[in-house]
Amino acid sequence: MKVRGIIVAGVAALGLLSAVGSTAQPVAPRPVRLVANTAEPVVVELFTAQGCSGCPAANQVVEGLSEEPGVIALTYAVDYWDYLGWPDTFAKPEFAQRQRAYQAAMRLRNVYTPQVVIDGRRQVSGAQGEAVQDAVDEEAARRVFPPQVQFRESGDQVGVGSGRAPTGGADVWAVSYRPGTQTVTVAGGDNRGRAVRHVNVVQSLTRLGEWTGRPILLDLPEAADPQDKVVVMVQSRADRRILSAATH
After folding, report:
1. Predicted local distance difference test score (pLDDT) of residue 201
2. What pLDDT score was predicted for residue 120?
3. Sheet hosting strand 71-77, strand order edge to edge
4. Model confidence pLDDT, tens digit, residues 213-247
5. In Å, what is the CA distance from 237 to each residue of 163, 188, 211?
6. Alpha helix locations (H) across 47-92?
7. pLDDT for the residue numbered 86
C-alpha cells in the first residue's frame, strides 16, 4: 500500500500542547514530554461476529492489513447475530452502536457483517478483499494535515494539537484493544465446529472529550489488562470522519 509520511512535531507545537489544558484536566505549567506518532495512519475498523458464516474470511483480510505499515486495524464484535445459536464471546452493545452511527452517517439502509469502515469515510463489504485493499490504498494517498495525536511518555495522557475543527465539532475517543490474534472455537450456530481467528480485538470504547481546534491534553483510561494497547482517534461528530489517530 502507499504509506503516508510522518510529520514530525515541532517545538512550538509541543509547547502549545503543554501549555493549553482541556476541560478534563488542567495542565501544569511544566514541559510535557510527548511521544511522536505517525500523523496520518489509515484506520480500518472491521465489524464482525463469530456467528456470521461469511466473517472468518473477512477476519483474515483484516489480519493481513494489520501487518501493513501505516495501518491501524481494529476488530469490533457485534451481538446482533447471537440469536443464531452462538453468543459472540467478544461482543459488546456499544460496538454495534458504533456501527449504527456509521450507518446513519453514511445513509446505509441497515447494518451488516462483515463490514469494513476505512477512516470513518467509506465502507466496503469485508467479503470483497480486493475492494478493501483498494480503499485502504486510496485513503493512504489522502493528505489532509490533521491535528497531531501524541502520547505522554508516562502513557497516562494524550495530547491533540491544533487544527480546523469540523462543522458540528469532534470527539476524542480511546479504543482499547488486545493486540495480535485470538482464536475462538465456535460451538453453535452457522460456524459450529470452526476455529474463528480475530486480530486486534477491541475491548472498550471511551469518549475522552471534545476537540474544538485548540490543543488539549486529556487523561487516558487505565488499561483493564496490561496486554492491551490503545488507539486515540479524533472523530468528526457529524459525518464520523476520523481526522487523526495514533496508537500506543
Report:
1. 98
2. 96
3. 122-125, 115-118, 42-48, 71-77, 195-211, 170-185, 229-236, 242-247
4. 999 999 999 888 989 999 999 999 999 999 999 99
5. 15, 38, 10
6. 55-66
7. 95
**What pLDDT sits at residue 145?**
76
Alpha helices by DSSP H, the chain: 11-19, 55-66, 93-106, 129-141
- At 8 the pLDDT is 31
> Nearest-5° angle of CA 102, CA 173, CA 92?
65
- How long a stretch of residues is the chain? 248
Give, to the nearest 10 degrees, the angle between helix 129-141 and helix 55-66: 30
Q: Cβ neighbours of residue 180 under 8 Å, at least 6 residues apart?
A: 199, 200
CB 146 within 8 A of CB 241: no
Q: What is the pLDDT of residue 2?
A: 43
Residue 84, burial from CB neighbour count under 10 angstroms (0-12, 13-18, 19+): middle
Q: Provide φ and ψ at 58, rounded to 5°.
A: -70, -35
Tell me which residue of 112, 97, 81 sits closest to 196, measured CA to CA. 81
Lookup result for grid cell 458540528: 168
In the chain, which residues have pLDDT < 70?
A: 1-39, 143
Residue 15 makes CB contacts below 8 A (sequence gap 6+) with: none
From CA 208, how far away is CA 67, in angstroms rounded? 28
C-alpha neighbours within 13 Å on the C-beta side of residue 55: 28
- For 86, the grid coordinates are 452462538
Query: Residue 143: what pLDDT?
Result: 67
Buried b / exposed e across 33-64, counting CB within 10 Å, b at 16+? ebeebbbbbbbbbbbbbbbbebbbebbebbbe
